[in-house]
Each structure stands twice: as structure tokens, then as C-alpha cells.
Amino acid sequence: MKRIKYFYKLLFSYVFILLVAFILLSVLFLSLAENLAYKTKVEELTSYGTKIISELEKQEMDVRAVKLKHFSSILHARDTKFFIFNEKGEIIQPSFRLKQKPLLSEAEWKKIQHGETLQIKRDVKRFEQPVSVVVLPYMKDSELRGGVMLTAPIHSTLQIVTELNRYLLITACITFLIVLVVSIFFSRSLVKRVQRLRQATAMISKGQYDVQVPIGQYDEIGLLGDDFNNMAMQLHKAQKEINRLEKRKRQFIADVSHELKTPLTTINGLVEGMKNDLIPEEKKQRCFEMMEQETKRLIRLVNETLDYEKILSNEITLQKEEIEVKEVFEVISEQLELQAEEKGNTIGIDVPASLFVYADYDRLLQILLNITKNSLQFTENGTIMLRGKEERQMTIIEIEDTGIGMDREEVSAIWSRFYKADTSRTNSYGEFGLGLSIVKELVKLHNGTIKVKSEQDKGTTFIICFPR
């Protein structure tokens, strides 16, 4: 089946509707004009007939004859004729050549007998040419005594109608040309907008989601274009998110593989050495300790990775309660006391005894231990201060160290998973770069905020705010 283009459909519909409207209006106008012309002629004849009837009612025959003769000459000049008939319908004066006899039909004669005026706008049967006819009865004592019939040819009216038809034909041709030009313009405009949508859709199907369609007018097509742009924007965002997740997945696999490689290589080397008796007996105990350490390191990596993924997947449920901050600080100080002494560091506590925080105890301890461990790793012969205070319905915890500090780039990057602040050292933020990522997500779960203030060679301060 052959397809008709949308452009031609629109063009045909525009032209058809406008032409039909013009034709209907033209027919209505011609009908009104013709009726008005005939009505004017009939009213004129009725006016003449009324004056003639008034003369017939006069008794003086001489005066009546003179008046009728005067009317005859006036009406003749206006191409109008009249004749008088008696109560039987017979013409009294003057004589006319009739194409039809009797003068009036039975139905028409009954109307005359009842005193009704008969008006015929167009008659082609009774006379030699088409005329307008008016018949007025002459009544006396409620009885018909005769009447008068007036006729006027309608060729002038027909000429007017013909002239109107000619002008309307010219107007119709001009209108058709205008309608055709306007219809082509609007059809092309609409088709162009639809084609833009089609081209954009084709780009979307090819995976180009950053396309935007010009809206223009806010009609139905404009609203469709707006919806299309919103759809394309959402698809573009979704594609970016998919790419980001894919990149994150690849990065995660690469990072985990890298972190697993070192302890696995160490364990494998030690096992191969012991298997082939390459390690002296006195060093085997040290080998077992190293394998134990690397195994624990692998376990911590797996646990931290699983912990982080659980947080991102909202699989962790917090058991919040009122916790005394000073008590938590003392637990941290006791657990990390040996690590601090190894590097010549001291852990100080500055917190009011009545300060409480509304949080999950285990997760709060995990947050503060991770941060404090990082501070210990990057501080030598210094101080790590654990502070607590309350401001504006917020419990604020600060962990300040006098370590090596960080520059601005490092401060903005430490929250990224597997990021290591100093790759030249064995120590790193969270050993595997996961610690601070977990800290940030756990703080978010508590509806809190965390920020860092740091300056190179002057130390770092972590500020955590928990809502009361």
C-alpha cells in the first residue's frame, strides 16, 4: 500500500477545510443577497399596489381613471406593469398576454378571497419573462370586490446575482491561492518539527542520549518535544550512572586484586620456601607469624569491603541509644595505647562528663577507631586529642593530631575508596584505603556530617557532628 506523506495530508486537510468553509459562506452570502434583492423588489411592488387600491376605493370614476393613468405612466417608466381584476378574477384593465390561464391558481385565489396579499418573488410561468409578482385584494364589507396585480421583470436582479457570482469566483480563485500558500507554510512548519523529533529519536536509538530538540511553540508538538527532552536527559543521566558504576566496578576489581596480591604473594612465597626446605629451622616460627599476619590482613580487607558494600546497599540497621562520649573516648584510648606508645604518641581526652551522643555504639566506636588509627599512623612523637562539645542541638566530636597533615587535593580525595594518602609509605588511610570511606557512610547513616581541616606538616582535625 502506497504511503501518503504527512505533509500532503496536512496540506489537503488545510485546503479542504478552508475551501469548504469559503464555499459554504459564499452560498450563504449569495442566498442572502438574492433574497434581499427579491424582497426589496416585492416590497416596492406592494407599496405601489397599496396606493392603487386606495385609488380604487374612491367613488369618483373620473378622478380614479386619471389617477390610474398617472400611475400607469410612472410604473411604465420603472419597467413595472399592473392590471386590475374583478371579484371573479377577470382582468378589467389593461389587457395582458398571459402564458397561463386562469390568472391565479385555486390556492392563490383562496388567499385573495380571504383578504391576504400574495407575494411571488420569482414567477416564470404566467408571463413572457421571469417577473416578481404582487397581488393585493380590494375588500369592501369583508367581501372581495376585485384587486390589483403588479409585475416587474427580475432581469436586473438576475444581473446582480450573476455579477456577484463572477466576483465570488474571482475571490474563490484568489482565496484558493492564499489558502494553498498558507497551508504549505504551516504544513512545512509542522512537518519540520516532527522531522526534528524523528531525527532526535534516531539518535537516541543509536545511543546518543545528549540530544535536545528545540521546543519552539508550546502546543501539543512543543509539549511532546519537552517530554522528549526530559526523557533524553533522564536517559543521559542513566547512561552516565551506568558508565560510572561500570568504571567503579572495574576499579573495585583492580583495587581488590591489587590489595589481595601483596599478602597472597607473601604467603605463597613463605609456603613454597617451607615446602622446599629453603627456610632455616630457626626462622620457621617467624614465617608462621608472617603468614598469620598476612592472613589476618586478608580477612580485614574482605570484612572492610563487605562492610562498605553493606552500607551502600542499606543493609545495616542502626541500634541508636544515648551514649556517654567520655566513656567511648576512654575505650579508644585503652585499645590504641600500645600503638601510640610505639610511635611516641600520646592520646589526650577533653570532653565534659555530661556530654552524650545519640548513636549506634558499635558503629560509633568503629568511626572513632578508624579516624584515631589514621591519626596515629601519620603522627610521630606527637599528640592525638579527642574532644567533645555540644553546640546548637548538635554533639560535636573532634579528633586532632599533630602529624604530617595533607594538602587540599588529598583532603578532597581521602573519602574515595582504596585511596591512599601517601603511596610511598606502607601505612595508608585505613590500611587498604577503605577506612575513611566507611567512616563517611556511617556518619551519613547517623544523619550527621564530617569534615576535615588539615595543613601540610601542621596536623589534621576531623570534625564530626551528630544531631541530638
TrEMBL record:
<protein>
    <recommendedName>
        <fullName>histidine kinase</fullName>
        <ecNumber>2.7.13.3</ecNumber>
    </recommendedName>
</protein>
<dbReference type="InterPro" id="IPR003660">
    <property type="entry name" value="HAMP_dom"/>
</dbReference>
<dbReference type="Pfam" id="PF02518">
    <property type="entry name" value="HATPase_c"/>
</dbReference>
<keyword id="KW-0808">Transferase</keyword>
<keyword id="KW-1003">Cell membrane</keyword>
<keyword id="KW-0472">Membrane</keyword>
<keyword id="KW-0547">Nucleotide-binding</keyword>
<dbReference type="InterPro" id="IPR003594">
    <property type="entry name" value="HATPase_dom"/>
</dbReference>
<dbReference type="InterPro" id="IPR004358">
    <property type="entry name" value="Sig_transdc_His_kin-like_C"/>
</dbReference>
<dbReference type="InterPro" id="IPR003661">
    <property type="entry name" value="HisK_dim/P_dom"/>
</dbReference>
<dbReference type="InterPro" id="IPR036097">
    <property type="entry name" value="HisK_dim/P_sf"/>
</dbReference>
<feature type="domain" description="Histidine kinase">
    <location>
        <begin position="255"/>
        <end position="468"/>
    </location>
</feature>
<keyword id="KW-0597">Phosphoprotein</keyword>
<dbReference type="InterPro" id="IPR036890">
    <property type="entry name" value="HATPase_C_sf"/>
</dbReference>
<dbReference type="InterPro" id="IPR005467">
    <property type="entry name" value="His_kinase_dom"/>
</dbReference>
<keyword id="KW-0902">Two-component regulatory system</keyword>
<keyword id="KW-1133">Transmembrane helix</keyword>
<dbReference type="Pfam" id="PF00672">
    <property type="entry name" value="HAMP"/>
</dbReference>
<feature type="domain" description="HAMP">
    <location>
        <begin position="188"/>
        <end position="240"/>
    </location>
</feature>
<dbReference type="GO" id="GO:0016301">
    <property type="term" value="F:kinase activity"/>
</dbReference>
<keyword id="KW-0067">ATP-binding</keyword>
<keyword id="KW-0418">Kinase</keyword>
<keyword id="KW-0812">Transmembrane</keyword>
<dbReference type="Pfam" id="PF00512">
    <property type="entry name" value="HisKA"/>
</dbReference>
<dbReference type="InterPro" id="IPR050736">
    <property type="entry name" value="Sensor_HK_Regulatory"/>
</dbReference>
<feature type="transmembrane region" description="Helical">
    <location>
        <begin position="167"/>
        <end position="186"/>
    </location>
</feature>
<feature type="coiled-coil region">
    <location>
        <begin position="228"/>
        <end position="255"/>
    </location>
</feature>
<keyword id="KW-0175">Coiled coil</keyword>
